[in-house]
Amino acid sequence: MPDFVYKALVKVIDLYTRIRDRVNPEWSIRNSPRIREWKLMAYTYSRSPIGLVGGSLVLLFAIIAIIGPALAWQPYWEYKVVENPDLWLSPPCFPPSCSGFPLLGTDEWGRDVFAMIFYGVRISFVISLLIVLIGAPVGIVLGLVAGYKGGVVDEILMRITDMFVAFPGLVLAIAFATVLPQRIRGLLEANVQLRDFLLFLFGLRPEEYGQLASLLSVLLALVIVWWPIYARTVRGSVLSIREQVFVEAARSIGLSTWKILVRHILPNVLSPIIVMMTFDLATAALLSASLSFLGLGPQDPVPELGFMISKAGQYFPERSWHIVVFDGIVLLLIAFGWNLLGDSLRDVLDPKTRRSIEVRLRAKKAGKGGKSD
Amino acid sequence: MGLLRFLGRRMLTFIPTIIGVLFITYIIAYLIPTDPVRAWVGGEKLLNPEALEQVRIKYKFNEPWYIQFSFLVSQLFSGQLEDPIRHRLVVQELGTKFPVTVEVAIFGFLFTVAIGLPLGIIAALKKDTLVDFFVRFFALFGSSMPSFVLYYFLILALFVYTQTTYLAGVPLPSDACTTMIAGLPTSIPVLGHIAFYIGQIPMFGAAFCGEWSVVVETFKRFYLPGLALGMLSGGFIARITRNSLLDALSSEYILFAKARGLPKLWIWRHALKNTLVPIITILGLQFGGLLTGSIIAETVFNIPGMGRYIYESIMRLNFPAIIAGTLLFAIIYVTVNLIVDILYAAIDPRVRY
Asked: Hey, where are the domains in chain A?
């Protein structure tokens, strides 16, 4: 397994260098130290069991998220009322007691929980990715500017982030998630193309654009809560890097502020930020599920994991333990995958740890080889 | 003296933060396209335009925004602000909700410390063994667990099957005790005030009057949410403790102590003292977070605390309550930060302000 991962990663790196060479001849020769460092990263990553487990979990859920809605054998909008056809709703049930063959039991709409998990994973995966991929860049840019410019700009930006940090995150998110849906709904009604694209992204059908508005408000609310942490962290690292000689040198050549920030400072603050983003993907998945658990996210019939668990809570534990258990495990595994990946990336992306791990592994290998000879 | 000056300066920088927090809350309120007055005035009054108009005038909704804002804030600081849905003073509402949250926070904090510190210390001392692996696994597990799922499992184990707890109400001291505590500030000058505020927390009030059965009931009621909160954040504390103890163990003075041949217990004690500095910070912030109330825990465990109150207020667009709650949160945040700073100086003699 480790060798396979290492070879695959090296192949990807080689492919990338070949493409860069095609565009820009001799790129790989000028950047050979960088390429060597990438291969070293691939080596240390492929040797960390935590990282491999986390990576495969993330990969598994990414695949489920991509092809899940197509695989789900029961569309979420098809309610089968199994027990009480005249009541429309029936309590959730687990296989031996209910008719048909739902793999993991049914919810109160008579839908197979396993099929609903496919949709739920898609929603949860996409929303956490969007939260971090929108929130982090905003925070990074503001942090870069605040840290590099200093003075009044810094003071104002940091006071603003202070205000956001002084709020308990969940309360602020709840407040925004309550306020935003109506505004977003208007926006979605005006932009049909944006709406269709987002519906496709979340794996929902066109009828659900009202639910999409509340889903997006959860997304936006969490983005608003998210960026201050990044702004603070980035600013902290920029403050120390700004004083270093290479930045001084770049400034003395007369490079523009923008270029100094992007080409010289950003790469130096990026690796802890990437680790943070990986951990935050787990937190974002959990927090968005928590908001839907509180009833702020999409409503019926959208099978959001947190919302399904909150509905199952009404019948807990006799009739609906399976929904809480299985949906809970899926949420747990999504977050667990990202956390494991982040834990190993922290070692892989830090140049010093990377080196020491490599030295230790090679020494171990050499020792083993010596004994067998 | 230096510490006092530092604290004074910190306090000054916190003032714009608090005003800003209030302002953000107000802006959020302004984003709402619906009329909050219609949400407050329920039932038959909704059909009566005069009643609507009265409420609107009472909360200055027909004035420009800055008058509304200054009205809300000035009423809030003078304690006259009324909750438009419950028709009680917001201060009174917070006065009944906040002590409950404090109780839960104390239990949560105790469990966090009781789970996190020992696990972290053991993991650091037995580094790279199976124990260490399990502790690290537990830490990651705690940060990946959806909180509400854990709460349901704990309810299943400790409420449904073993029935060692219950999930309704808050144990309160008897009426005689409450009136006794309410009379304290007038009878004893300074200590009385302190005792009065501590006595507002039902558990401590009951203990003060010697009503131990209420204390036991409180323990039975709140240990489950406490355990749940402790399990979620204990892993995080364990990880911090482990890393910082490992840092301390690999430093030179420990090497020196080993070289002198000190017993292991002494060496660990030296290391632990230096480990505490970062942990105190994290624990302080954790406690601050618990004091603002865990909305999900309070919903699942049915606790009438701050988190639920704020959540319900947001859902019903109850702005006076939301603004008051936000102010309380901001004050908690500021105080916790200050206390952590003071503790820092007290523990670490190198830190001087």
From this structure: 75-344
* Residue type present at position B67: I
CATH for B95-173+211-303?
1.10.3720.10
Distance, in Å, from the CA atom of B272 to the CA atom of B270, rounded to the nearest integer, reads 6
ipTM of the complex: 0.86
Between CA B84 and CA B41 the distance in angstroms is 8
Query: Residue A137: CA atoms inside 13 Å, Cβ hemisphere, count?
Result: 6
In this prediction, residue A78 carries a pLDDT of: 78
Q: Which pairs from B71-79 meet CB under 8 Å and 24+ separation?
A: B72/B26, B72/B319, B72/B320, B72/B323, B73/B22, B73/B323, B75/B320, B76/B320, B76/B323, B76/B324, B76/B327
Q: What CATH number was assigned to the domain covering residues A75-344?
A: 1.10.3720.10
Instruction: Flag residues of chain B having pLDDT under 50.
Output: none
Contacts of A83 (CB under 8 A, 6+ apart): A90, A91, A93, A98, A110
How many whole angstroms separate alpha carbon A110 and alpha carbon A87? Answer: 12
pLDDT digits (tens, 9 = 90+) for A196-246: 899 999 988 888 888 888 899 999 999 988 889 899 999 988 988 888 899
The predicted structure's pLDDT at residue A372: 42
Find residues 181-240 of chain A whose CB sits inside 8 Å of chain B.
182-183
CA gap A324, A94 in Å, rounded: 12
Q: Where are the domains of chain B?
A: 1-85+316-353, 95-173+211-303
**Residues 149 through 168 of chain A touching chain B, CB cutoff 8 Å:** 159-160, 162-168
Longest CA span, chain B: 86
Instruction: Answer yes or no: do B322 and A175 touch at CB < 8 A.
Output: yes
**What is the percentage of chain A residues whose pLDDT exceeds 70?**
94
- Per-residue model confidence as pLDDT tens digits over B230-249: 999 998 899 899 989 988 88
Which chain B residues contact residue A168 at CB under 8 A? 289, 292-293, 329
Q: Smallest Cβ distance to B21: which of A167, A321, A331?
A: A167
Q: How far is the C-alpha of B15 from the C-alpha of B18, rounded, in Å?
A: 5
| B interface test, pick of A176, A178, A308 with most B CB neighbours within 10 Å | A178
From B157's Cα to the closest Cα of chain A, the distance in A is 11
Within 8 A of A343 by CB-CB distance, chain B residues are 140
Query: How many CB pairs (< 8 A) connect A and B?
Result: 122
The predicted structure's pLDDT at residue A309:
92
Give the Cα separation of A227 and A142 in Å (integer). 9
**Which of A322, A272, A337 shows the shortest CA–CA distance to A125?**
A337
Beta bridge partners, A93, equal A106
Whether residue A316 and residue B32 make contact (CB cut-off 8 A), yes or no, is no
Contact B143 A282 (CB under 8 A): yes
Query: How high does pLDDT run on average in chain A?
Result: 86
Q: How confident is the model at residue A101 (pLDDT cuts 50, 70, 90)?
A: low
Three-state DSSP class for residue B82? strand
| Residue of chain A whose Cα is closest to the Cα of B288 | A168
Q: Cβ distance A113 to A121 under 8 Å?
A: no
> b or e along A163-185 (b: 16 or more beta carbons within 10 Å of the residue's beta carbon)?
bbbbbbbbbbbbbbbbbbbeebb
Q: Residues 6 or more apart from B243 whose CB is under 8 A from it?
A: B124
